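Lab manual, section 2.4: Encoding a predicted structure.

Procedure: take the sequence of the chain (379 residues), apply the prediction step described in section 2.3, and record the output as structure tokens. A sample record is shown.
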Amino acid sequence: MQERHLVISGFIITALLAAVILNGWVPFWVVALVILAAGVGFTYMLALGQRQQDYLANQQALVRALQDLHKADSYPDLVKNLELALHRVLAGKATAVKVLEANSPAPSEDIAGWEDLFKLAETNSELQVITREDEDWCALPVKCSSPESSQIFLCWKQKHDPAGLPVQDKKNVSTIAAIAAQILTRLNKQHNQEQFLNQLLLTAVKAREDQVPGFSGHGERVALIADILGQQLGLDERERRDLHYAALLHDIERVSLSQGGDEDHPDRGAAAFPAGDEWDSFREAVRYHHERYDGSGFPEGRKMTDIPLLARILAVADIFDGLTALAPEENRLPSRLACQAIQKATGSGFDPLVVVALQESLDLIEKQLAVLTPPKAGD
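Recorded output:
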């Protein structure tokens, strides 16, 4: 409606000016001044409108960037979403962006050469301009209240002079850094809580396993193997967490003192989880970890992809530990032979993709198991 009124007013003013000029009612210089004033006003209105459009576009980019950040439910997600957020708010103003992790457990090659930035950030939390390989970069640290938190830096290379970054863009990047710090603090708390829960469950599982000779450590070893397989298969953070806890607890009813045949223990183990959709993946992994790919397993005789993926992974991790550690000592197989035995059952007993993941990650599994269960003296 406002635009319509402006158009109508423009037509009326134009008609009046034309009448004044054609009839010579006022001197020409007055008309010239009026036209000049109208031109200046029109130019100002256009500039103001463009400025408002730029501001709205800037704010929309910031809102989308913050929405991306709040989707992060793990540390890798946060790092990935931070880079996406920088791309959003600095679109057209930066030729490259990086999110650096100074004290990452597995630092990337990108970390090399940024040591001066990390040292500077220890005493200064403001926006920094550094030179790397004859290129000027802006860098802003993400300051987290948790002392154990990873040190993260938002870095970008501008098209023009780094000192000339618009004030609004600086505010947007600072807002992203502040929100990222809050999310990082929350993720650290969640991680600490999960570590405590994992240790609590591990202690409970070990106490149950110790009641059965030769069963001690089975849940912990299967969880370790399943963790590696899940990562190899590209599971997301939530799926890997569910797989870990399901693997840790998958045989909790098998080693209990309750009565029941061996084929009952998956159902009894699944029934131990609370009701609710959030527990479905745990229950399914535990209930179906003895199903076989060709339908010859129990308790329901499911086959192929009718068996949940976490259960298919758990089945391979479970049998691998059974062959290498849980079997009587005289029947145990070295890791390589156990992997070959599982490979022979590919397509009949086990999911081919999971078996391939086992083969590709066997070296890592051996190393991790060696740390978990070091060889006895004299071995």
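Check your result against the sample. Confidence is low (pLDDT under 50) at residues 105-109, 256-260, 375-379.
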